[in-house]
Amino acid sequence: MPKSVVGKVSHFFGKIGVAALSMSGALKIGDHIRFEHKDGSLVLEDTVRSMQINHKEVSSAGPGDDVAIKLNGSVHDGNIVYKVTE
Hints:
The protein is an all-beta fold. The chain has one domain: Translation factors (Elongation Factor Tu (Ef-tu), domain 3). It is 0% helix and 55% strand. A hairpin with a 5-residue loop joins strand 4 and strand 5.
């Protein structure tokens, strides 16, 4: 299962289950993502279902964007975000 780094968690809002990501790669709705600790251990795997930039829904994001993504679990500030491809 190949994966490529697409960003890093800058903040996690636990009450609403949203991660703020600083993007270094491209990501779009429907992509499978994986969050890992810096040591490579798995934190969470999920699929991008909704994405916002500046409180506006978007279908994709790229390098340099700060994006918010709703998740089905918890992640931690500093986790590395990977896009998983088949």
